[in-house]
Design goal:
Number of domains: 1
CATH topology: Spore Coat Polysaccharide Biosynthesis Protein SpsA, Chain A
CATH architecture: Alpha-Beta Complex
CATH superfamily: Spore Coat Polysaccharide Biosynthesis Protein SpsA, Chain A
Helix content: 25-40%
Shape: globular
Structural class: alpha/beta
Radius of gyration: 18 Å
């Protein structure tokens, strides 16, 4: 039997060596204390989905906790992993914890009426260039949420050993931590956002495959949740996803148009 060690195993699948080296790798190499890095080179496209790649990496992990992170994430300090591990050990009912997520009570009706897609997003992280805050709620302690964002999240190794990411539902590069969060909640575990600072280079992008995966997640979890709350938006499990996609794209176009008029 493989011995589990008191440390964090960092798992990252990358397809751009320069971005990976500049962001995640450089900040991991500066970390104090014990940790393990499992880097998955996917420049040849061997893995067809994030769930497939990260499950493969997670199965090789030896640490008490597994941290799954994007290649373009930079940790805030040289003692970041030690602080994260201490915080994780203080949570007794942990299923999954991230650095950004969305609370349960940010319902779809509120978002549709008020049009604020950041309402209920919890994080102390930044993204983009120049850096912008990710969320509207900035925690000072771990907070319970419905789901966490894919950019960086932790899973206790014993939890991961029992439940892997769903490669059939999440067969692309979107929403795998959202689906995983919902699956763990259905098993009685709790989802948290931690007050840990990182910078994520990407602002995120919604491709059409996002909605394809979202529809599969809705089909799997609609009997347990009225809405699926992600950092991108709040999605109803009752209204067809195609209708919600049209509304989202319309709102997106209006926002771009209004922003262009303000810059004139």
């Amino acid at each position: 039997m493989r011995q589990v060690q008191r440390m964090i195993s960092v798992v990252c699948v990358y397809n751009d060596l320069s971005i990976y080296s500049e962001y995640l790798l450089s900040s991991i190499q500066r970390q104090k204390g014990d940790h393990e890095l499992i880097a998955i080179d996917n420049r040849d496209g061997h893995f067809k989905s994030a769930a497939e790649a990260l499950n493969d990496g997670g199965r090789k992990a030896n640490g008490d906790f597994i941290m799954f992170a994007h290649q373009d994430v930079r940790l805030d300090s040289d003692n970041w992993l030690n602080g994260a591990e201490e915080m994780l050990r203080s949570i007794s009912d942990l299923g999954i914890a991230g650095v950004a997520g969305r609370e349960d009570k940010s319902g779809v009706i509120s978002v549709l009426i008020h049009g604020n897609q950041l309402a209920g997003v919890i994080s102390v992280t930044t993204h983009g260039d120049p850096p912008e805050p990710v969320g509207s709620i900035h925690p000072i302690e771990p907070l319970r949420v419905q789901t966490v964002d894919e950019c960086l999240f932790f899973v206790p190794r014993d939890v991961f050993a029992s439940v892997w990411m769903d490669e059939q539902v999440c067969d692309d590069w979107h929403l795998y931590s959202v689906e995983y969060s919902l699956s763990l909640r259905e098993r009685g575990l709790v989802v948290y956002v931690l007050p840990l600072q990182v910078h994520h280079k990407s602002m995120g992008r919604i491709s059409e495959t996002y909605f394809t995966v979202l529809a599969k997640i809705v089909a799997k979890h609609k009997n347990h949740f009225l809405t699926i709350n992600t950092t991108i938006g709040v999605w109803s499990t009752v209204i067809p996803i195609n209708i919600q996609r049209i509304y989202f794209r319309l709102r997106e176009s209006i926002s771009v148009f209004m922003a262009s008029r303000q810059t004139r």
